[in-house]
C-alpha cells in the first residue's frame, strides 16, 4: 500500500475532511462478495475491505495483507439507485438490463452508486459500484442519505435546453447525444428539452427571442466552435435585451448571463471545449454538466464605429490568421485539411499590413503574458478578478480616455507594419499547438493578450511559428511583443498601397527567396487583411475591442493539474493516512 505522506499534500486535505466531518452513515456492507466498511460524510463516500485477504507470497512463508480502499467525493456522485431500478432505463442495452435483473434476484437489498472516475488525459467516465445490504431498511437508508446529500448540491442543473447541430463535424451530433449523453442525463434525473437545428443561426435566434429561459438551469450546445458561438451570441444578446442594455454601446457594462453553457464536442474544431475541459470527449463534458461545474469566462465585445459586430472568447486575429481563415473558408469542401493548405499558402504569401493599434494595458492583474503561469482549474489569477477599487481606477482611466481624444492617457499607441495582430483571450491550445498562441492567457481575468508580430523575414516568422510547437518562448523575438490588455482598437492605413520604398525594405532574402519575389505583387494588392473572430470573418477592419470580465459561465472547471487529479485517483492514501479508527 502506498503512503504518500510527503508528496500528496492535497490528499491530506481530503483525509482531514474525512476525519473532521462527522460521519453521516457507516455500515459493513458487501461489494462483489467482499465485506467492506462503507463510510459517508458530507463530502466523501469511502469504502474499504474489512477482511484481510491472506495469501502466501511466492517462495516465502510470510503473509501479506491487502486492503483495497476507494473514496469518491460526494459532489462527484452522479446518482444512487436501488439495484432493481438499474437497467430500467429504456436506453440501456438488453445485456445490461438482463445483468441487472440477475443481480437484483441474487442481491435483493442492494444499491448502486454511479460516480465520476478519472481516466487518462483529463477524461472522465461514469463508474458504478454496487453495495449489498443485510436488509431492505438499511438499503433504503443509504439511498436516502446519499440522495439528501446530493440534493444539497445547489449548483447541479435539473433542467436543460439542448441544441444539436446535426451537420457539425462528422455529422454525428444527434448520435453522440442519443448514445453518450442522454443516458447519463437520465441517470442523473436531469430533464432535457432537445432542439435539433434546421438551419444556421436557428439556435441563436431561438435563444434571442423565443426560448422560455426561466424553465432552465443551463443551455447545452452539441456541436463545434461555430455552434458554441451561436449559443454565446443568443444568450448574451437575450440577457442584455432583458436587462435593457444596448450592446451597440462599446462602453456599456454588459450583464452576466445567469444560465450556464455546456459544450458537448461534436464539431471539427472544438477549441473552446478543449480549453475549458482539457479534452474533447462527449462523456467527460456530460459529466461536468451533471456535477454542475462552473467555469467563468471573459467575452470580448467587438465594435466598429459604435456598431456592435460580434463577441469573441478565443482568438481575434488580423493578418496571418485572418488571411488563413479567409482562405480556408473558400476551401470548406476539403474538410479539416483546408487549414493546413491555407496555412502553407498564407505563410508563403508573407503579407504584412500597416495600421495603428491602441491598447489599454490591464491594471492590477496578477499575471503577465510571459510569466509561464498557466490557467488551470481554480486559477488564482482568475480568482483575483478586478475589485471595485480596480473598477474605480478603470473608470478613471475611462474618464481620462474621454478627455484625451488622442488616446495618449492610459492608452498606448503603436503604428507600424504587422504580419499578425492577435488578441488571445485564452491560450488557444489545441492538439496541434499544445501551448497555444498565448500559453499564459487566462480564461476569466478580464484581459486579453495582444500579440503583435511586426514585419520580419519569412525565416524569422517561421522560427516564431515553430516555437508554438516546442518549449521555446514564442515571444522572445525582437519583432514580437505581447501586452496584457483590457481594451484595444485597430485602425488600418486604409486604401494605401505598400510603396516601392517599403518593398525595398522587405524581408532579407532567405531560402524561400524565389517564392518571396514571386509574391511581391501580393504585397501591392493587399492593403488590408480581415479580422477572424473565433473563426468568423468580420466585415470591418477598423475595430474596437473591450473585454467583459466573466460575462458567461460554462459547465466546466478548467484543466485539472496532474496533482489535482491524483487527489481523487488514489483513495488508498486516504485510508493509509487516516488514524486507524476502523
Ligand atoms: N441545421 C444546420 N444547418 C446548417 N448549418 C448549421 C445548422 N445548425 C448550425 N449550423 C451552423 O454550422 C456551423 C458549423 O457548426 P459547428 O461549429 O457545430 O461545426 P464544425 O464542423 O466545427 O464547423 P466549424 O469548423 O466551421 O466551426 C455553425 O456556424 C452553425 O451556425
From TrEMBL:
Name of one Pfam family that matches: CERK_C
Region called Disordered, residue ranges: 385-409
InterPro entries: ATP-NAD_kinase_N, CERK_C, CERK_PH, Diacylglycerol_kinase_cat_dom, Lipid_Phosphate_FormReg, NAD/diacylglycerol_kinase_sf
Highest taxon listed in the record's lineage: Eukaryota
This protein's GO CC annotations: membrane
GO biological process: ceramide metabolic process
GO molecular function, one term: ceramide kinase activity
Bias kind Basic and acidic residues: ranges: 387-407
SUPFAM superfamilies xrefs: NAD kinase/diacylglycerol kinase-like (SSF111331)
Residue ranges occupied by any DAGKc domain in the UniProt entry: 155-306
Name this protein carries in UniProt: Ceramide kinase
Species of the source: Dicentrarchus labrax (European seabass)
